[in-house]
Design goal:
This protein is mostly helical and 97 residues long. It has one domain. Helix 1 packs across helix 2 and helix 1 crosses helix 3. The chain is elongated. InterPro entries: DUF4229 (IPR025323). It comes from Streptomyces carminius. Keywords: Membrane, Transmembrane, Transmembrane helix.
Amino acid sequence: MSRAVLRYTAMRLGIFAACFVVLAALAYAGIIPEAVGRANPLWLVMLALIVSAPLSLVLLRRQRDEMSERIAPRVERTRQSVRQKLAADQSREDEAA
């Protein structure tokens, strides 16, 4: 795994953790509801996911672009390999028929 992928993932998890801590503090202070029914931790995790997603989209744009530049050549090589295998399989089927 490349350094760009690890860095993006760590930063994404960091934003999620920060959102979770802030939301937990707000829930503890009574500013937001602590729970929905009996799902206190799940409620805060889901809320943190919802809040951290758009923040990550905006704040980690550069890291996401860098990561995609690293991944794109590998994806293209894999795609070409799969296409070649499919073409070879199809030609074998055509010969057998």
